[in-house]
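Sample intake sheet
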Amino acid sequence: MNIPFFPYSQLYENDRENYIKIFDDVCSRGAYILQKDLEDFENECKKFLNVKHVFGVANGTDALIIGLKALNLDPGDEIIVPSHTYIASPASIHLTGAKIILCECGDDGMIDVDDIEHRITEKTRAIMPVHINGRTCDMDKIIDISNKYNLSIVEDAAQGFGAKYKNQSAGTFGSFGTISFYPAKLLGCFGDGGLIMSNDDKMAEKISLLRDHGRDDDGVVVDWGLNSRLDNLQAAILLHKLKSYDEDIRRRREIALMYDEGLSSLNELDLPVPPDDGINFDVYQNYELRANDRDNLKIFLAENGIGTIIQWAGTPVHQFKNLGFNENLPKTNNYFKRCLMLPMNMGISNEEVSFVIKKIHEFYK
C-alpha cells in the first residue's frame, strides 16, 4: 500500500464539482473581500463554537498577532507558552513586543500545567495554552492560575476547531482564541486562512479594527491595523465544508479508536487518550503517539509505504538556538525523542488503518 501522511490533492478531488460551483458563484459575483459569504461563515462558526464574536483573518499567525495587539501589551510583558508548539505561537508574542517564556509539555503533549506557576514573574501578563492535536488543555487548572495571578488567557487553538473541554469549545475560555484553516488542518481551505474568537465585546471591537487597516464600520481609519481578512472565496469553501464537519469529526474519532484498539497491547508505545474520556472531546487533528526506537520505526513504516511525521520537524521551540533560546526543558526533550504522528485524515480507509497497525506490530516483533 501507499499511505501518504496527508493526501493534499484529495481535498479538492473528493468534492470537485461543488468546489467548481463555489468558485464560479463567488467569482461571477465579484465577491472577493469582506462579502456575505464571509459573514455567513462567521455566523455559522459562532453557532458551532458557541461564542459571541468571530472574525475570519488571513491566517492563523495573523490571528494570534491581532489578538495579542488587542490586549495592548507593554514592552517587556511576559507571556507563558509551551515549547511544544509551532513557531507561530512564540513568533506572535515576539512580534508584538512581548517576551516569550517557554514552558514544559506534559505526557499528553499539552502545556504542563504544573510548570506554569514556576514561570510566573511580576512581568507576566498572559498564559498561552496551545491545544495540540485536536485536544484541549486542562483549562480548569489554567483558569485557576490565571485568576490567582490576574493573568489573561490567550488560546492558540489552531489545531482544535471543535475540540471541547467539559463541553466548552477550545478557544472560548480566555480573552481570545485562534484557529488555523491551513489545508491540512481539521477544517482546511485551499490556501491560508484563520479565525479569531472572543466573548469580550471590547476585545472584539479592537480585533475588528485591527484586521482591516484600523477602519471602523463607517470606513474611517481610527487606529493602526493590518491587512488580514479571510478572503471571500476561502470563506465560501469553508462554509461548504462546515456543513459536513460533524461527520468529519465522527470519522476522525473512529480512526483514533481503531488505532487505540489495535496498538494498545504494545508496551513499546504510549498512545494518546482514546475518544470519550469524560472530560475532553478530542477531534484528532493528529494522532501523535510516543514510541520506543522511534526513528527506526519511522524508517520501517516508510519502507512499507506509510507516511509519518515528527511534529514541528522534530524541533520544539526551545531548541531554536538561532532565535536566542537556551532553556533546559528535559520533559519536552524526552517527549521529542519518542513522538511520532501516524496518518490521520479523511482520506484514509479502515483497510489502510489496519495495515498501519499491522506493520507497527511487525516492527516490534
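Comment: The domain at 10-242 is CATH 3.40.640.10 (Aspartate Aminotransferase; domain 2). The chain has two domains: 10-242, 245-364.
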